[in-house]
Amino acid sequence: MDETLINITKYLPHRTPMLMVDIILIMDDEKVETIFDIKADNIFIENNFLAESGLIENMAQTCSSVVAKDFFVDANNHHKEDVDVVGFISAIKTVKIHKLPKVGDTIKTIATLVSKFVTNEYSLCLMNCKTFHEDELLLEGEINLFIQENNSKD
Fold this sequence. Notes:
Elements: E1 23-27, E2 31-37, E3 45-46, E4 49-50, H1 52-72, E5 85-97, E6 106-118, E7 122-133, E8 136-149
Antiparallel strand pairs: 1-2, 2-6, 3-4, 5-8, 6-7, 7-8
Protein backbone atom coordinates (compact mmCIF):
# COMPACT_ATOMS: atom_id res chain seq x y z
CA MET A 1 0.00 0.00 0.00
CA ASP A 2 1.48 3.32 -1.02
CA GLU A 3 -1.18 6.03 -1.06
CA THR A 4 -1.05 9.76 -0.64
CA LEU A 5 -2.46 11.30 2.53
CA ILE A 6 -3.65 8.23 4.45
CA ASN A 7 -5.96 8.82 7.41
CA ILE A 8 -4.04 7.73 10.53
CA THR A 9 -7.25 6.95 12.44
CA LYS A 10 -7.70 3.90 10.19
CA TYR A 11 -4.54 2.41 11.74
CA LEU A 12 -4.53 3.64 15.34
CA PRO A 13 -7.13 3.69 18.08
CA HIS A 14 -5.84 7.05 19.38
CA ARG A 15 -8.13 10.07 19.26
CA THR A 16 -7.84 13.67 20.42
CA PRO A 17 -6.20 14.72 22.69
CA MET A 18 -3.76 11.77 22.45
CA LEU A 19 -3.56 11.60 18.65
CA MET A 20 -0.05 12.81 17.80
CA VAL A 21 -0.09 12.21 14.03
CA ASP A 22 -2.22 14.15 11.56
CA ILE A 23 -1.73 12.17 8.38
CA ILE A 24 0.29 9.33 6.88
CA LEU A 25 2.18 10.49 3.78
CA ILE A 26 3.57 7.10 2.76
CA MET A 27 3.13 3.61 4.21
CA ASP A 28 4.11 0.14 3.10
CA ASP A 29 5.01 -3.02 5.03
CA GLU A 30 8.38 -1.67 6.18
CA LYS A 31 8.28 2.14 6.15
CA VAL A 32 5.96 4.94 7.17
CA GLU A 33 6.20 8.73 6.93
CA THR A 34 3.85 10.97 8.89
CA ILE A 35 3.29 14.66 9.49
CA PHE A 36 2.04 16.45 12.58
CA ASP A 37 1.26 20.12 13.11
CA ILE A 38 2.27 21.39 16.55
CA LYS A 39 -0.68 23.38 17.91
CA ALA A 40 -0.88 25.54 21.03
CA ASP A 41 -3.65 23.42 22.59
CA ASN A 42 -1.64 20.18 22.39
CA ILE A 43 -1.48 18.47 25.81
CA PHE A 44 2.30 18.04 25.49
CA ILE A 45 3.08 21.76 25.02
CA GLU A 46 5.40 23.26 27.61
CA ASN A 47 6.62 26.87 27.29
CA ASN A 48 5.56 27.02 23.62
CA PHE A 49 7.50 23.82 22.71
CA LEU A 50 6.42 20.21 22.22
CA ALA A 51 7.84 18.36 25.23
CA GLU A 52 10.08 15.32 24.91
CA SER A 53 7.16 13.07 25.86
CA GLY A 54 5.16 14.46 22.93
CA LEU A 55 7.98 13.73 20.48
CA ILE A 56 8.26 10.19 21.84
CA GLU A 57 4.48 9.67 21.57
CA ASN A 58 4.61 10.91 17.96
CA MET A 59 7.44 8.43 17.32
CA ALA A 60 5.46 5.56 18.88
CA GLN A 61 2.26 6.32 16.97
CA THR A 62 4.13 6.67 13.69
CA CYS A 63 5.96 3.38 14.24
CA SER A 64 2.92 1.45 15.44
CA SER A 65 0.92 2.26 12.31
CA VAL A 66 3.14 -0.15 10.32
CA VAL A 67 2.57 -2.98 12.81
CA ALA A 68 -1.11 -2.16 13.40
CA LYS A 69 -1.68 -2.22 9.64
CA ASP A 70 -1.75 -6.04 9.83
CA PHE A 71 -4.76 -5.82 12.15
CA PHE A 72 -6.66 -3.12 10.23
CA VAL A 73 -6.17 -4.24 6.61
CA ASP A 74 -6.96 -7.66 5.14
CA ALA A 75 -4.93 -9.57 2.54
CA ASN A 76 -6.78 -7.72 -0.27
CA ASN A 77 -5.87 -4.28 1.16
CA HIS A 78 -9.44 -3.64 2.34
CA HIS A 79 -9.98 -1.94 5.68
CA LYS A 80 -11.54 -4.13 8.36
CA GLU A 81 -14.38 -2.57 10.36
CA ASP A 82 -14.67 -2.42 14.17
CA VAL A 83 -11.12 -3.55 14.90
CA ASP A 84 -10.05 -2.93 18.49
CA VAL A 85 -6.34 -3.19 19.25
CA VAL A 86 -4.23 -2.51 22.29
CA GLY A 87 -0.60 -1.56 21.97
CA PHE A 88 2.22 -0.16 24.00
CA ILE A 89 5.90 0.67 23.93
CA SER A 90 7.65 -2.43 25.27
CA ALA A 91 11.07 -0.76 25.20
CA ILE A 92 12.79 2.39 24.06
CA LYS A 93 16.13 0.99 22.97
CA THR A 94 17.66 4.35 22.10
CA VAL A 95 16.40 7.89 21.85
CA LYS A 96 18.31 11.08 21.22
CA ILE A 97 16.43 14.36 21.14
CA HIS A 98 18.42 17.07 19.39
CA LYS A 99 15.88 19.88 19.52
CA LEU A 100 12.22 20.43 20.45
CA PRO A 101 9.77 21.77 17.87
CA LYS A 102 7.75 24.85 18.76
CA VAL A 103 4.09 25.70 18.37
CA GLY A 104 3.38 26.32 14.69
CA ASP A 105 6.02 23.89 13.42
CA THR A 106 5.13 20.90 11.27
CA ILE A 107 7.18 17.79 11.95
CA LYS A 108 7.79 14.85 9.65
CA THR A 109 8.52 11.46 11.18
CA ILE A 110 10.05 8.60 9.20
CA ALA A 111 10.06 5.09 10.66
CA THR A 112 11.58 1.95 9.18
CA LEU A 113 10.96 -1.61 10.31
CA VAL A 114 14.11 -3.28 11.63
CA SER A 115 12.54 -6.59 12.73
CA LYS A 116 9.10 -8.05 13.33
CA PHE A 117 7.72 -11.10 15.14
CA VAL A 118 4.08 -11.99 14.42
CA THR A 119 1.90 -14.65 16.03
CA ASN A 120 -1.83 -15.27 15.83
CA GLU A 121 -2.27 -13.34 19.08
CA TYR A 122 0.16 -10.40 18.87
CA SER A 123 2.91 -8.58 16.98
CA LEU A 124 6.23 -7.34 18.27
CA CYS A 125 8.46 -5.08 16.26
CA LEU A 126 11.64 -3.04 16.42
CA MET A 127 11.47 0.25 14.53
CA ASN A 128 14.09 2.86 13.68
CA CYS A 129 12.71 6.38 13.73
CA LYS A 130 13.76 9.93 12.84
CA THR A 131 11.76 13.13 13.24
CA PHE A 132 12.49 16.36 11.37
CA HIS A 133 11.33 19.95 11.21
CA GLU A 134 12.11 20.94 7.64
CA ASP A 135 15.66 19.50 7.18
CA GLU A 136 16.63 19.69 10.86
CA LEU A 137 16.86 16.38 12.76
CA LEU A 138 14.87 16.63 16.01
CA LEU A 139 14.76 13.03 17.24
CA GLU A 140 16.34 9.69 16.37
CA GLY A 141 15.88 6.38 18.08
CA GLU A 142 14.79 2.76 18.13
CA ILE A 143 11.62 1.54 19.79
CA ASN A 144 10.05 -1.87 20.46
CA LEU A 145 6.27 -2.05 20.16
CA PHE A 146 3.73 -4.69 21.22
CA ILE A 147 0.29 -4.76 19.56
CA GLN A 148 -2.56 -7.24 19.87
CA GLU A 149 -6.24 -7.38 19.08
CA ASN A 150 -8.36 -6.59 22.13
CA ASN A 151 -10.61 -9.60 22.61
CA SER A 152 -12.07 -8.57 25.97
CA LYS A 153 -15.85 -8.30 26.05
CA ASP A 154 -17.39 -5.53 28.15
